[in-house]
């Protein structure tokens, strides 16, 4: 029989899932907004009589293809909704038994977003901070720090 998770382990999993979803929603939303802004600017540039109209058109077509393929807006909204579900569990977890908490977190984790792997350690650090463990944290690589900054800030 598998060993039951401890209350601390469950609280960590809940906070970790919450922060991973929040960061995933933020970075996907920012990518989507940036792509929209670039497309609008370049689209306006197409109408200007310049020799770069074909280049601008090609870039707009590439960005449009990327937006259709990766659907950052949909990913952002799905992660935001999942973060709301985690937040609801966070608000209720003090009133739940370990078994109830385990069942709820297992159910929630089935619907987690596909997050960037460079968000794993920053989300882990934020979960530790949320649990009051400010001194324990994972060392972040340069890429993790950059992606973390783009997704809502580097946890300290």
Overview of the molecule:
This protein is mainly α and 156 residues long. The chain has a domain at 7-115. The chain is 72% helix and 0% strand. It contains six helices and no strands. The chain has helices at residues 7-47, 53-70, 72-92, 98-109, 120-130, 142-150. The longest helix is centred in the first third of the chain and has 41 residues, at 7-47. The two termini are 38 Å apart. This is SMODS and SLOG-associating 2TM effector domain-containing protein. It comes from Serratia grimesii.
Defining traits:
156 residues, single chain, 6 helices, mainly alpha, 0% strand, 72% helix
Count the DSSP helices: 6
Report the portion of residues in β strands.
under 5%
**Class inferred from helices and paired strands:** mainly alpha
| Major β-sheet annotation | none
Stretches where pLDDT falls below 50 for ≥5 residues? none
- Principal-axes geometry comes out as elongated
Order of helices and strands: HHHHHH
Question: What Rg is obtained from the alpha carbons, in whole angstroms?
Answer: 20 Å
Task: Bin the helical content.
Answer: over 70%
> Termini, distance in Å?
38 Å
Q: What is the averaged pLDDT score? A: 93
Counting DSSP E segments of at least 2 residues, the number of strands comes to 0
Protein name: SMODS and SLOG-associating 2TM effector domain-containing protein
Produce the secondary structure layout.
Layout: H1 7-47, H2 53-70, H3 72-92, H4 98-109, H5 120-130, H6 142-150
Helix pairs in contact: 1-2, 1-3, 1-4, 1-5, 3-4
Protein name: SMODS and SLOG-associating 2TM effector domain-containing protein
């Amino acid at each position: 029989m598998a060993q039951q998770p401890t209350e601390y382990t469950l609280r960590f999993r809940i906070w970790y899932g919450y922060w991973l979803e929040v960061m995933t929603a933020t970075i996907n939303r920012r990518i989507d907004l940036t792509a929209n802004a670039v497309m609008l600017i370049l689209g306006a540039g197409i109408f200007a009589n310049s020799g770069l109209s074909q280049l601008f058109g090609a870039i707009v077509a590439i960005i449009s293809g990327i937006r259709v393929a990766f659907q950052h807006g949909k990913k952002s909204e799905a992660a935001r909704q999942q973060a709301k579900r985690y937040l609801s569990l966070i608000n209720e977890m003090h009133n739940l038994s370990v078994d109830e908490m385990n069942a709820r977190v297992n159910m929630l984790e089935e619907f987690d977003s596909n997050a960037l792997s460079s968000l794993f350690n920053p989300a882990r650090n934020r979960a530790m901070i949320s649990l009051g463990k400010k001194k324990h944290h994972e060392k972040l690589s340069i890429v993790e720090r950059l992606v973390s900054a783009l997704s809502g800030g580097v946890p300290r």
